[in-house]
């Protein structure tokens, strides 16, 4: 179970290891995006949503777990394991902290952001490679689906984060 939580936490946090490279941030990461990626045509509000994902990734890469948690509402749920929501800041803190030790590498094939009123959905297919504490290599892929809510101050925070969005198709 502990190994599964670490692996699935790796998947959740992978929402954006290569996002920063896609937006030419200071961090020099690699990406496999094509030139016709949706994020090149994001309107300002979509960019604001995407910014939340970028902030989470930047904080995670700095192992700033408080910064990671700041991109989620207090009552957010994260599916570290398929169809098994986890909530609560301390449970999320524990899972993200454990994940930081594996230093996974992600590749995304694109990002989509759709907004309806004060709710947004971020979708990103991903692949991940990393190493567990025992040194064994892990490779996985999936479809990350995150739901965000616009806050009274205009920022966006994640309320649901599911890196296993493809699970029903795999059954």
Notable traits:
171 residues; alpha+beta; 7-stranded mixed β-sheet; 6 helices
Task: Give me the Rg, rounded.
Answer: 15 Å
Q: Which bin fits the share of residues in helices?
A: 25-40%
Question: What percentage of the residues does DSSP assign to strands (E)?
Answer: 25-35%
The beta-strand count equals 7
Terminal CA distance: 21 Å
Order of helices and strands: HHHHEEHEEEEEH
Average pLDDT confidence is 79
| Coarse structural class | alpha+beta
Give a quick account of the main beta sheet: strands, pairing sense, barrel closure: 7 strands, mixed
Task: Note the total helix count.
Answer: 6
Inertia-based shape: globular
Low-confidence stretches at least 5 residues in length (pLDDT < 50)?
A: 4-36
Protein model, in words:
There is one protein chain. By secondary structure, this protein is an alpha+beta fold. It contains six helices and seven strands. It has helices spanning 2-13, 19-22, 44-61, 65-69, 89-100, 167-170; strands at residues 72-81, 84-87, 105-108, 112-116, 119-131, 137-150, 156-162. Strands 1, 2, 3, 4, 5, 6 and 7 form a seven-stranded mixed β-sheet that branches. β5 (119-131) and β6 form a beta hairpin. α1 (2-13) packs across α5. It starts with a helix and ends with a helix. Residues 4-36 have low confidence and may be disordered.
